[in-house]
Amino acid sequence: MRRHSGRLKIRIARFPHRYKLAAWLTGKVPNPYARLPRVAFPDEEVLMMRAALIRSGFAVVREPGECERLGAASY
């Protein structure tokens, strides 16, 4: 995710990771990490996705504090 002309530019290559993150934010899966490579999610991206899910009418079960400093999975 990079800034481009003041807007966030999201790379499509990380779609599977974002899909899993959205499932975690809505309480569908117990952890936000996809399979290898276990990439760390930037706080800005996680909070942006959380806000987008809320605006889209999804019931988000994770508080903002839970969405920060997720890091990479250690398993």
Question: Quick gist of this model?
Answer:
By secondary structure, this protein is of the alpha+beta class. It contains 2 helices and 2 strands, in the order ββαα.
- Share of helix, binned: 25-40%
Number of H- or I-type helical stretches: 2
The ordered string of helix (H) and strand (E) elements is EEHH
Structural class: alpha+beta
Main sheet makeup: 2 strands, antiparallel
* Major beta sheet, strand line-up: 1-2
Proportion of residues in extended strands = 5-15%
Radius of gyration: 12 Å
Number of strands: 2
Q: So what's the overall shape?
A: globular
Catalogue the unreliable spans: none
Q: Look at the structure and give the mean pLDDT.
A: 81
- For the termini, the CA-CA separation is 25 Å
Describe the structure.
The chain has helices at residues 15-25, 43-55, and strands spanning 2-4, 7-9. The protein is α+β, with helices and mostly antiparallel strands and 75 residues long. A two-stranded antiparallel sheet has the order 1-2. 12% of the residues are buried. The model has no long low-confidence stretch (mean pLDDT 81).
